[in-house]
Amino acid sequence: MLEINNLHVKLEDESREILKGLTLSVKPGEVHAIMGPNGSGKSTLSYVLSGREGYEVTEGSVTFKGEDLLALEPDQRAAKGVFLAFQYPIEIPGVATMQFLKVALNAQRKARGQKEMSAPDFMRHVKDRAARLNVSQDMLRRPVNVGFSGGEKKRAEILQMAVLEPSLCVLDETDSGLDIDALRVVAEGVNALRSPDRAMIVITHYQRLLDYIVPDKVHVLSDGKIVRTGGKELALELEEKGYADYVVKAA
Amino acid sequence: MSALLPRTAAEDSLGVSLPNRRSEEWKWTDLRRLVTAPYARKIVAARDADIDRLVASSPFASVKAKRIIIVNGVYDAKRSQLPRGEINAVVPLADDVIVGIGSKLEASGVSLVFDGNADLPVEIVHVATGAAQQAIGVRHTISVAANAAATVIETFVGEGDYLCNTVTEISLAEGARVDRIKAEVESPEATHLSHVIATLAATAMLRDFTLTSGAALNRQNGTLTFLGENADAQIAGTYLLKGRQHADTRLVVDHAVPHCTSRELFKCVMDDNARGIFQGKVIVRPDAQKTDGKQSSHALLLSEAAEFDAKPELEIYADDVVCGHGATAGDLNHDHMFYLKSRGIPEPDAKSLLIAAFAGEAFETIEHEGIRECLSAYAEGWLARR
User: Fold this and answer.
1) Residues 92..151 of A with a Cβ closer than 8 Å to B: which?
2) Does any CB of chain A come closer than 8 Å to the CB of residue B349?
3) What share of chain A is helix, strand, coil (3-state, %, to 5)?
4) Are A50 and B339 inside 8 Å of each other by CB?
5) What's the pLDDT at A134?
6) Which residues of A are less than 8 Å from B331 in CB distance?
7) What is the pLDDT of residues B154-206, one digit of tens each?
8) Residue A5: which H helix or E strand, with range?
9) Is A251 contained in some domain?
């Protein structure tokens, strides 16, 4: 589904490389965890996959369902099935959450040549999913993420994911700022979306989230490269030993 | 000073001297230079079909309201659902350019008196039917008796090149409330000059909103005076401007007595070479302790050539007050854009969504849901035509 090959990325206005030859292959149905110390390039990877401005790919390729992902605009990537759950979801004053979800879903459907979803069908589509994630009607009426608590924002991200039904979910530090109860709700929401034709990349600093979202593979990202890959037990090892072995010593 | 300048064709035909940029409050809107055509008062016969078509083009056509139709500055008895009323100056008129032009044009209009709670909004639809370079003078008075309430809409539509000069006087008795909504969607070639002059007695409430989206040249003045304590005024506006449109709003809010609250919120969207100006002056007199006055104007500039100027002026002579102002200008927020695009919303749609949200913040000050929806629909149409 996703093939990242020797990916080199730098910030547009700096010469320093952030990703230095990252290679990763994700198949449908798999959940990959990417763990690593701060500054290893975890968030950069998520932004490059979703198409945020400001990053320059200097070498390598990203292929998604056989297509050059890097050639697509962010909205085209979304319509093809890429979804990024933001570490810090953006507040958008004046745009009601419900309206936002409807515009986004129908834009994606239109881009895929599908019919727009009718208002009653859409209401049903959102309602069940919102209930499962503990997202109230009041939250849906409020502007996107405005005045939401940290936990509400993360639940709202997962609701967007559930509504848009992407085939590749990238979760960028979805556990940050969550207490244990909120973490459980979010993880249950994510697990409900696991399916044989959907892949997930779970980016996290801590092992805690992976107790709930159990990965098929765990990768250690350090200094812009994947330096070790293992099964779910690798996360436990990292939790015990920390990232000391993977942090690049300052010269 | 203007007496020393030779009269322009426009000054000759209007019979007044027009201010120029050397006058501080006109520095961004040099009327003498900007109004060039010889606009003159004319008796213009309009075709029924034109009138009906223009009346139907009001953004509020779907709102259930009692309607008054003014055609080329003249009350249309046949189409109006309310009588004209007797115009009597309820407020002493300020010495002001726009009031001066109005009296030269022998401006007329309607007098609305509300004694109780009006059940339906009153919409005054002003229609200009494309007679070449006519000057239209309108003057309305609105008085609301103690504890009475009313919603009044003033809509300006038209075709062709004309000048519309309009003065509205509002007098609110104790505990009275008026919700006034104005839509300036004049012909793209028109010049629109207006002045709303309001006085509020104790505990009165004014909710005023203006959409500015028509006319080539706009100057809208507002003068609001608190005469009694614990009165409350909110003045909001949205600009939706493009091409070479020019819109200048100048408000003077006079806190002459203590314990009054004033809020000003302007959301201005400028595309192409459009230019928006907001000048807001708040005066707090020495006795007006516990005044709470806040003013904000925000501009969204959609092109490199668009421009916004804001001039907040606070004149505070009392020491126990809360007053503030804020002004911002910028383009669309890149993080917002990326977030919307990352959810599959294409760039043009994402832009429209964010522009509508920006402009719509001022609509939220309006209590009448139907009117709010009409404004949202207007904004949507404007964005689609961009």
Assistant:
1) 92-95, 100, 103-105, 107-108, 111, 143-144
2) yes
3) 40, 30, 35
4) no
5) 85
6) none
7) 999 999 999 999 999 999 999 999 999 999 999 999 999 999 999 999 999 99
8) strand A2-11
9) no
CA B259 to chain centre: 26
Question: Within a domain: residue A128?
Answer: no
Contact A84 B342 (CB under 8 A): yes
- Using CA atoms, how far apart are residues A216 and B138, in angstroms rounded to an integer? 75
**Model pLDDT, residue A240:** 82
User: Could you tell me the residue range of the domain that residue B212 belongs to?
Assistant: 39-332
With beta carbons under 8 A apart, name residues in chain A contacting B344.
Answer: 75, 78-79, 104-105, 107-108, 111, 164
The whole domain housing A208 covers: 2-92+149-241
> The pTM is what?
0.90
In tens, the pLDDT along B20-43 reads 999 999 999 999 999 999 999 988
Using alpha carbons, select from A225, A237, A159, A233 the residue that is nearest to residue A19: A225
Share of chain A above pLDDT 70, in %: 98
Strand B322-330, strand A92-96: pairing: unpaired
Q: How far is A96 from chain B (nearest CA, A)?
A: 9
Residue A163 belongs to a domain:
yes
Residue B2 lies in a domain: no
B369 in a structural domain: no
The model's pLDDT over A196-206, given as tens digits with 9 standing for 90+, comes to 999 999 999 88
Structure tokens at A225: 């490269």
Task: Domain count for chain B, please give it.
Answer: 1
Which of A92, A110, A161 should we substitute to test contact with B (largest number of B Cβ atoms within 10 Å)?
A92
DSSP conformation letters of B60-79: TTTS--EEEEEETTEE-TTT
Asked if the ipTM is above 0.90, the reply is yes
Chain A CB contacts of B345 under 8 Å are 75, 103-104, 107
The total domain count for chain A is: 1
CATH of the domain at A204: 3.40.50.300
In the numeric block, the tokens 């961004």 are attached to B28
